[in-house]
Design a protein that fits this description.
Shape: globular
Order of helices and strands: EEEEEHEEEEHEEHHEEEHH
CATH architecture of the largest domain: 2-Layer Sandwich
Strand content: 25-35%
Radius of gyration: 17 Å
Bound molecules: adenosine-5'-diphosphate, uridine-5'-diphosphate
Number of helices: 6
Largest sheet: 7 strands, antiparallel
CATH superfamily of the largest domain: ATP-grasp fold, B domain
Number of strands: 14
Length: 238
């Protein structure tokens, strides 16, 4: 399947149309941004790593009953996906306090929750992705109650699957962001990416950060951390 016109260029990926109206090709860039685009940089090799990791994790989720947009990896940076209409909600699951949760509620990072939490942000860069609840999402017409119920059920199931998989590879899944989309027939599927850009991963013994916080917080060793996650989850370093 060949790319035709570019439909969209985002901060980390480009989306292209294909000759099949129902399919798109996503192309992963090395560009990195944080704090709603205020901090910009490059993480060499990130596009390849995030493409390959996302596809591995989407396959794992599909095997475990989660419908996803994944169709086929077409090159090291590019993947054929089902074109969806993105539900404009960032769905965030947390197992351990970190990032904006720790800041908002004035707690330290690293508190292991008895049960995972879920929150939604309205995916709108101009507004800075504000937190919203179900009622707000319904009022704004962003999704139906049934969509939200499906998304919540999938998100917690995804957490169970990913948490167990990461632990097998010595990684603690601290928190992560998911995006869901709708197929033309209304089916909700998991879309976008699952990578060190969109998850917090800590080494299970040292608690060393193996994710985009190394870039956000200028901790150094950014590329090494992305490569380490790929090595652990995919078994190689190229
Ligand atoms: P952003 O838009 O936040 O800068 P990216 O650079 O990752 O993010 O851009 C990728 C865009 O593609 C996102 O807006 C995402 O919602 C969208 N997207 C992800 N998967 C699909 C899909 N299967 N069909 C259509 N759009 C998608
Ligand atoms: N996240 C993301 N995109 C966003 C916001 C958050 O992928 O636009 C991910 C982030 O990488 C982390 C989780 O969602 O794994 C929770 O992020 P948090 O709310 O703590 O915000 P941050 O500290 O990134 O501002």
């Amino acid at each position: 399947m060949e790319k035709t016109v570019q439909l969209y260029e985002g901060k980390a990926k480009k989306v292209f149309a294909t000759s099949d109206e129902s399919l798109a090709i996503v192309s992963y860039k090395d560009d990195a941004t944080a704090f709603n685009g205020e901090k910009k940089g490059t993480i060499l090799g990130k596009g390849v790593i995030n493409n390959r990791l996302t596809n591995r994790l989407m396959k794992l989720l599909a095997e475990n009953g989660i419908p996803t947009h994944f169709v086929e990896e077409v090159s090291e940076r590019e993947t054929l996906v089902k074109k969806v209409s993105i539900v404009p909600l960032e769905v965030i699951i947390r197992n351990i306090s970190a990032g904006s949760f720790a800041k908002r509620y004035g707690v330290e990072e690293g508190i292991v929750f008895k049960a995972p939490t879920i929150e939604f942000s309205y995916k709108d860069d101009a507004l800075g992705d504000p937190l919203i609840n179900d009622f707000h999402a319904l009022a704004l017409g962003l999704a139906t109650q049934s969509d939200i119920d499906t998304i919540r059920t999938y998100a917690f199931k995804i957490n169970d699957i990913l948490k167990a998989f990461m632990l097998e590879h010595g990684i603690e899944l601290v928190d992560f962001k998911l995006e869901f989309g709708k197929l033309p027939d209304g089916t909700i599927v998991l879309a976008d990416e699952i990578s060190p850009d969109t998850c917090r991963f800590w080494d299970v013994t040292t608690h060393e950060k193996l994710d985009k916080d190394r870039f956000r917080r200028d901790l150094g060793g950014v590329e090494d951390a992305y490569n380490e996650v790929m090595r652990r989850l995919l078994g190689d370093t190229n």
